Amino acid sequence: MKRSCCVFLAACVESLTDPDNVLQSWDPNLVNPCTWFHIRTTASLAYIELYKNNIQGAIPDELGNLKSLISLDLYNNNISGNIPPALGNLKSLIFLRLNDNQLHGPIPRTLAGIYTLKVVDVSNNNLCGTIPSSGPFEHIPLNNFKNNPRLEGPELQGLATYNTNCS
């Protein structure tokens, strides 16, 4: 656990801009660097709670390596870029809250393979394409996708193709 936590946190510190110095309070030299108050652990890294911190930059792909992650809360920041398809590797994820950021691009279809997902909120971004309609997305309220001007309502699998000019 210590290694995966350190790899993720080091990637965050390197790839994100942190005008409020939230990430700088993390000390990689602690006996257990995962004791940082924005990270909660059980037997492994389970909760990342970096919401409402004005963090800027892209979500690190390395996040997809945290296989035991249960909750990823990055909402209400200034995170930009695409949602990494590598998040689809998080097969224990229950909560994915990325709302109120500056994310763009499509919702990765890899997320539809996370059958443990109960809460997905990507509202108030600039996502495009279609909302997945399979797997856990069958039960996610449409309000959790609102205010994404280029995001089209649930895809009709096999019935229609969409040219959404989304990349």
UniProtKB/TrEMBL annotation:
Entry GO terms, CC: membrane
Gene3D superfamilies from the UniProt entry: Ribonuclease Inhibitor (3.80.10.10)
Per UniProt, the keywords (alphabetical) are: Glycoprotein, Leucine-rich repeat, Membrane, Repeat, Signal, Transmembrane, Transmembrane helix
Q: Which positions fall inside the Leucine-rich repeat-containing N-terminal plant-type domain?
A: 14-39
Where is it mainly found?
A: membrane
Supply the InterPro entries for this chain. Leu-rich_rpt, LRR_dom_sf, LRR_N_plant-typ
Pfam families linked to this entry: LRR_1, LRR_8, LRRNT_2
Q: How does it sit in the membrane?
A: Single-pass membrane protein
Q: Where in the cell is it found?
A: Membrane
Q: Which family does it belong to?
A: Belongs to the RLP family.
Protein name from the UniProt record: Leucine-rich repeat protein 1
